[in-house]
Amino acid sequence: MKKILLIGASGFLGSYFYNRLKLSKDYFVCGTFFNTYNKNLVKLDYTDFSNFKLFLEKINPDIIIWSAGKKNVKLLEQDFSIAEKNNLKPIKTIINFQQTVNKDVQFIFISSDYVFNGYKGNYSDVEKPNPDTNYGKSKYIAEQLIKEKSKLYSIIRVGSILGRGSKFFDWLVEELNTKLSIDLYDEIISPTPLEMVYLALERCIEKNLIGIFHISGNINISKFQIGLELKESLSDCKTSIKEIKKNKFRIINRSLKRSKEFSDFKNLQLKNLLN
């Protein structure tokens, strides 16, 4: 039985990973939390780097999954040091553990479509990132460190997660149920259901895939269009939806092209995700 350490198991994505992995008889799963208490998880402050190192040595897992860090784009734009402390330095601690304590540990790093600036869209996993936000920069620098220093790694860049429980989806449903009119951006994303992200994670574990991989629903659609689709699925919704520009000079498009390693996954049917 392999021992998995899931860092960030109380978050939206991490909690889904944790609950699914716990169903398997092949794994013993140790999950961590910091702010959101969960009696089944272990409290961990991964920014306390000396204690984080000791924690890794104590658990000594076969697999480490990173599904943590600061994701508040607006906050991180104000101060890169916050991104560095939460999204970059803990990764250095994990890599150091790999190099000095357990060279056989598999490291799975959950990354983001924010490593791209959104000028092009439909990015493949071989294209060079060009982040234009502090969040994206911290993710990309972490990726580079992992590629350079780690021998056993999977970097999974995830398209915009959409579905019940995700912030945008839940906000949109609430707005459509309570407001007479709403504004939605023309920003193009590649919506990705939670289950698809988990299946990509599972495949990386089982096949010990090494490299950078993109997982997405393989459709590109604007947030405005998603709003129209969701409105249509809601009975008696009278809310008017106005399209507004995220950027006055261009349409931002950070959509991802799914990697060939997951080519057998079915393309997302948006109506199934919205229902």
Walk me through what this model shows.
By secondary structure, this protein is of the alpha/beta class. It folds into 2 domains: 185 residues, 3-Layer(aba) Sandwich (Rossmann fold), CATH 3.40.50.720; 62 residues, UDP-galactose 4-epimerase, domain 1 (Alpha-Beta Complex), CATH 3.90.25. Helices cover 39% and strands 19% of the residues. The protein contains 9 helices and 11 strands. Strands 3-2-1-4-5-6-9 form a 7-stranded parallel sheet, with helices on both faces. Helix 1 links the parallel strand 1 and strand 2. Helix 2 packs parallel to helix 4 and helix 4 runs parallel beside helix 5. It is globular and about 60 Å long. It starts with a strand and ends with a helix.
Mean model confidence by pLDDT: 94
Q: Which oligomerization state do the chains in this entry correspond to?
A: single chain
Instruction: Using the CA coordinates, give the radius of gyration.
Output: 19 Å
The biggest sheet, with number of strands, parallel, antiparallel or mixed sense and barrel status, is: 7 strands, parallel
Question: What strand order characterises the main sheet?
Answer: 3-2-1-4-5-6-9
What is the N-to-C order of secondary-structure elements (H for helix, E for strand)? EHEEHEHHEHEHEEHEEHEH
Protein structure class: alpha/beta
> What is the CATH topology of the largest domain?
Rossmann fold
- Classified by CATH, the class of the largest domain is Alpha Beta
